[in-house]
Write a structure and sequence with these properties.
The complex is a heterodimer of chains A (484) and B (215).
Chain A lengths: L9 H9 L2 H25 L2 H17 L1 H14 L2 E6 L2 H14 L4 E4 L3 H6 L1 H7 L3 E4 L2 H9 L15 H12 L7 H18 L2 E4 L3 E3 L4 E6 L3 H7 L3 E7 L3 E2 L2 H15 L7 E5 L13 E7 L3 H6 L14 H5 L3 H4 L10 H11 L4 H4 L10 H5 L6 H14 L5 H14 L2 H18 L7 H5 L4 H5 L12 H17 L2
Parallel strand pairs in A: 1-10, 2-3, 2-4, 4-7, 5-8, 7-10
Antiparallel strand pairs in A: 5-6, 6-9
Helix pairs in contact in A: 3-12, 9-10, 16-19
Chain B lengths: L2 H12 L22 H17 L3 E6 H12 L4 E3 L17 E2 L5 H10 L2 E4 L3 E3 L5 E4 L14 E7 L3 E2 L2 H4 L9 E5 L4 E2 L7 E2 L6 E8 L4
Parallel strand pairs in B: 1-12, 2-3, 2-4, 4-7, 5-8, 7-12
Antiparallel strand pairs in B: 5-6, 6-9, 10-11
Classes of the chains: A alpha/beta (484), B alpha/beta (215).
Chain lengths: 484, 215
């Protein structure tokens, strides 16, 4: 995963994002729209919380006996002709797909949107084997033409203005287009249609598998997922090992919650549930359906009780839209495949020795909005706190800030030291706060303080500390009570 | 990695292998008592409203008017359609110029679908909860009929209108190669959050629900 190793840190990338006006407006507009859509859908549904409870239970149940559930899925999927493969890590998953491509003599693989494919960097592996990997989701295709990374789980290209998209298409096709969405989408439709018909291989992700019927389910709005799972002779679905529910009833809850949580839709335009390749008598559909079940760090997460629940995630993106940090800086600042609160939790768990991913636990205000929005109630904010604790224990992070926090912790434990220390800090704070006497650049070069001040606007301390006001408050309260 | 090693990895992570999961094979539930026609009409109205809210369209048509309505919609446009036994016989003369899945080879079929303006299908069900059309793939109902043409016309009898997604899941008991819900035309908001209809899939989804005059 070399391309994922991050050079600068989150704060640098966030600072960079904050300097880009279009990006800031676009990210805010997107997260607002999706959050409002979800809120509307919750209101209309009425029994949203009952569904949440049911799906939360269903996901945890399946993950709690995942080996047994996968066995049933594999047995039943195989019974209707699905060929199942198992990959321990990203390299093995890519090798399996590349080998299939070779065996089929494939030159073009048309791809549906898959975050797992981003995660294992499948496109690079296919290109290295001289197989063209073509993204066909409109947003993903634009990302691919631009040589970038998705910035949102479900709307990958929100950070790009339409004029840039037009230029990309004009360069790609040697044509002249207008900025209208219809024109741009129409160009993509025409260009990609021929490719769907030409591709020997269709590659998709898997939103969820259903053990009971041995099915792989794909949710989509554009229809490219249907194209790549219908037209090429071979369809490969990449599946994270945790993407499974046990029964159709569990799947019903998912159908109701995933679209509402993601975009506020009652249901996505297409819900495509596949039980194997086409039957011999059928006129169309793939002749082979391969499912590649991928671990790539997930069993590590499963083994860790503190974070196991994060495997219940259904990848709806609701936590991104709810997060004040994400909706301010956007996805690229995280520098990882999965951004936002869920990314800050699972990315460090996938690669525990990666310092740059570990710091993402700080990319949060711990407000808990992610937990509130989560359709399967993953306690993301608790996990972020626990990741921060782990980081501190391992001595990660800014040394000065860590030392400051340690000193503060000691001081707070002794009332006398705390009271006097706070008085000194309050006096000192008047100079270094946002309206204080010290200019910011001085602050940024002051030893010890720069660590605190780098990304924070320090508030002006109040004239009287809360603990000094406390005695008055208690007295007032008593008087009020006596006066009754 | 072989299957057993993979399961063993998971079992280790879980702290030991899980007991075998005995899931009964999928079965359709016992059919509910016969649903009255007025009830189906109420569901059809709900389905139509929900389908319209996502850019699709729907109308109730009396069987006696069906052929005329299909003629008005499709006229002489190029058409592909599912096998005759899935469609009301009244509309077959109007679709006489259609390419029919039951008499062509796969390559010719795909080309016909890619070139057609309309694809005409039936539906296994039409669902009030979401306005979704359920299509289970089979020899006589190939997938491309509802995928490649720019317009998709669904002709569904009133007695296939159902209340909820739960009932639609019954059709999964037979594990069709594809169990597909279609709810409205293809859409994307990928470009600056601007909603556009008709990206890869059909840009028009129109449902004709056929009402028998007798009820």
């Amino acid at each position: 995963m070399s391309a994922h190793s991050l050079k600068d840190d989150f704060l640098d990338r966030a600072q960079h994002a904050l300097g880009q006006d279009f990006l800031r407006r676009a990210v805010r507009k997107t997260t607002d729209r999706l959050r409002d859509g979800r809120a509307q859908a919750v209101k209309e549904a009425g029994q949203f919380d009952a569904w949440r409870t049911a799906l939360s239970d269903a996901r945890r149940r399946a993950i709690g006996r995942l080996d047994a559930v996968l066995r049933v899925f594999v047995e039943r999927a195989s019974a209707h002709g699905v060929q199942v493969h198992f990959a321990a890590d990203a390299a093995e998953a890519c090798a399996i797909v590349v080998e299939l491509a070779r065996a089929k003599g494939a030159r073009l693989a048309a791809k549906g949107k898959s975050m797992l494919s981003e995660e294992i960097e499948l496109n690079q592996a296919l290109e290295a084997a001289c197989v063209e990997a073509l993204e066909t989701d409109l947003g993903e295709w634009i990302i691919q033409l631009a040589g970038e990374r998705p910035s949102h789980i479900i709307l990958p290209v929100v950070h790009k203005p339409r004029a840039e998209i037009r230029e990309l298409f004009e360069q790609h096709g040697g044509v002249s287009l207008s900025d209208e969405t219809k024109v741009l989408a129409g160009y993509a439709r025409d260009r990609l249609r021929a490719e769907f018909l030409r591709a020997e291989l269709g590659i998709t992700g898997c939103n969820m598998a259903i053990a009971e019927t041995g099915a792989v389910a794909l949710f989509s709005n554009e229809g490219n997922g249907r194209m790549v799972s219908t037209l090429p002779k071979t369809h490969i679905a990449l599946m994270g090992l945790e993407r499974i529910v046990e029964t159709r009833a569990d799947f019903a809850d998912l159908m109701r919650l995933l679209p509402r949580s993601a975009t506020g839709q009652r249901i996505t335009t297409y819900v495509n549930v596949l039980h194997g390749p086409k039957r011999s008598a059928e006129l169309d559909g793939p002749e082979e359906l391969h499912v590649v079940i991928v671990d790539a760090g997930r069993t590590q997460q499963l083994a860790d009780r503190d974070y196991r629940e994060a495997l219940a995630c259904i990848r709806c993106g609701a936590c991104l839209n709810a997060c004040p940090v994400y909706s301010t800086v956007g996805g690229h600042a995280y520098g990882t495949v999965y951004p936002g609160p869920i990314g800050a939790v699972i990315e460090p768990l996938y690669a525990r020795d990666d310092e740059r991913r570990a710091e993402l636990a700080n990319a949060s205000t711990l407000c808990g909005a992610c937990h509130e929005a989560c359709p399967v109630r993953i306690p993301l904010h608790d996990m972020l706190v626990s990741l921060r604790q782990a980081n501190a224990r391992q001595g990660r992070g800014d040394r000065t800030e860590l030392t400051l926090q340690r000193v503060a912790a000691r001081a707070m434990a002794v009332p006398f030291v705390y009271a006097h220390g706070a008085a000194v800090a309050r006096w000192f704070g008047r100079f270094v706060s946002s309206n204080g006497a010290w200019p910011r650049f001085v602050l940024h070069h002051t030893p010890v303080l720069h660590a605190m001040a780098r990304q924070r606007v320090l508030p002006e301390p109040p004239a009287r500390a809360f603990r000094d006001q406390w005695a008055d408050l208690v007295r007032d309260e008593r008087r009020g009570a006596d006066g009754r | 990695m072989d299957a057993e090693s993979f399961y063993a990895r998971i079992a280790t992570a879980l702290g030991g292998p899980s007991p075998a999961l005995h899931l009964p094979p999928p079965r359709a539930r016992a059919l509910p008592a016969t649903v009255s026609v007025p009830q189906r009409r109420v569901w059809a109205a709900a389905a139509a409203e929900r389908l319209r809210s996502v850019g699709g369209s729907a109308e109730v048509v009396l069987r006696s008017n069906l052929a005329q309505r299909v003629q008005e919609l499709i006229g002489e446009s190029s058409v592909v359609r599912v096998a005759e036994h899935l469609l009301p016989s009244e509309i077959l003369p109007v679709l006489a110029h259609a390419t029919v899945c039951s008499i062509v080879e796969p390559v010719a079929w795909r080309e016909a679908c890619a070139a057609a303006t309309w694809g005409v299908t039936d539906a296994n069900a039409w669902i009030a909860e979401t306005g979704s059309v359920l299509l289970c793939a089979q020899r006589d109902r190939p997938r491309a009929t509802s995928l490649l043409p720019r317009h998709h016309l669904v002709v569904v009898p009133m007695d296939r209108v159902i209340a909820s997604l739960d009932e639609a899941l019954d059709a999964m008991a037979d594990t069709p190669s594809q169990w597909l819900l279609v709810t409205g035309p293809s859409r994307t908001s990928d470009i600056e959050n601007d909603l556009t209809i008709g990206v890869h899939g059909p840009a028009v989804l129109h449902v004709l629900v056929v009402d028998e005059e007798t009820a």
